Give the backbone structure.
Amino acid sequence: MTFAFDNSYARLPERFFARLAPVPVAQPRLVKLNDALAARLGLDAAALRSTEAVAIFAGNRVPEGATPLAMAYAGHQFGGLVPQLGDGRAILLGEIQDPAGERFDIQLKGSGRTPFSRGGDGRAWLGPVLREYLISDYMAALGIPTTRALAAVATGEPVWRETARPGAVLTRVARSHVRVGTFQYFQIRGDTEALRHLADYVIDRHYPEVRVSDRPYADLLRTVIARQAALVARWLGVGFIHGVMNTDNMSIAGETIDYGPCAFMDAYHPEQVYSSIDHQGRYAYGNQPRIAQWNLARLAETLLPLLDSDGDKSLALAQQAIDGFGALFTRAWLDVFRPKLGLLEARAGDAELIEDLLEAMAAAGVDFTNGFHALNPAVASGVEDELGAAFGEAYPRLGDWLARWRNRLAEEETSPEARLAAMGQANPVVIPRNHRVEAALAAAVEGDLGPVEDLLQVLATPAQVDAGNLDYRRPPAPHEVVHQTFCGT
Ligand code: AMP
Ligand code: MG
């Protein structure tokens, strides 16, 4: 079993990384292989189940053609700059190309200590590994840009957190692992040559269209900003809270990366926070656009030496790009939320209509997913039973809004079929509900992978309404509500 590696990152200057192999583990065992992703990448799933492949996923065998390395990066964590982070528990094996020629990193996460481990053990354990697997797979099913999980293996070694946990390694697939923090790493060191190298690398790999521009670096910045604005809008559309939007967890390729204490909201509230370490609510649901812009401003600062030879011009270009985030985000947010309401055309006043519904949902503590999905039957058949169920006692107060909404719907000539198709896509019925995720992970840690398998299957078709996923669509009962999620590092 071999990957057809072609490792562009390993050809960058040596100061971009540390070369080292993953640290072998005692007893590799395949827990989960992502057959659909393997197929998408043009890999032979049967071969990926072989003993040799499992040894690769565990870090016990470095495959032919790999150039294993730990990437260097820095980052703002909760607003504070850490000049050196880097892959403290991950190894980039190399890059492969899918049948369409698109390039993907193959990275092991939880693969042992590296020069960037800073006192950590370099390891991961099964709970968080499967959590990342589950949630990234769901994001992919929604079509939201994300890193993917190709395989999860158990190591047969304990990992010490509060107590002994079963060790595991995740094989992560990403368009690249270059982060805002990668640029910061070189900015902090005053290494403009490396910054230019990195920017050129990112342009060649991700944004070749800006190469021909008069100002490729300004266009690179603008493009990354637009990608992130679109990404965060998609998150908001499904009630996703990333939880650790540090600059080292923001991908330059625009993918959702680093699934730690992330969560999907049950009851909607813009200030909702789940992460146990987010005491100030910095990364609350409704703060995510602002934080994205803040992180992108840090990226813009790193590019100042490249934007123009004149410092004032550089600053103006960077400022202009950052100021553009607001309009880009608003447009992306409207693109996400209009179809949730069945609106396929743009009209003035749409933002207010959406905001007012969200406000009513927050006031009544309506389940985000079910509240929006209840609009679908209200359009399909005019029946508002689901809305009544979702809003409960607050339903009668929704009357004015419903009248406005129905008037607005009537302003469009959109066909009912097109409208319902759009709403079906925009308002998924199943999300990885926190209580189901926690229960599935607890079972997996006890050796029963059944609930994880079931959940994965249900999550693969987010828009499907059927009896089989009825219980997965149910919000948590009060005693089931998960109030906190953990980094689980
Ligand atoms: P994260 O919070 O996962 O984004 O990680 C932030 C930084 O901590 C990165 O440099 C990681 O590589 C590092 N890190 C997280 N967990 C560990 C661990 N168990 N051992 C070593 N480094 C870690
Ligand atoms: Mg990280």
Observations:
- Residues 248-249, 258 surround magnesium ion (ligand 2) (CB under 6 Å).
- The first strand starts at residue 17 and ends at 19.
- The two ends are 30 Å apart (CA to CA).
- The longest helix spans residues 311-340.
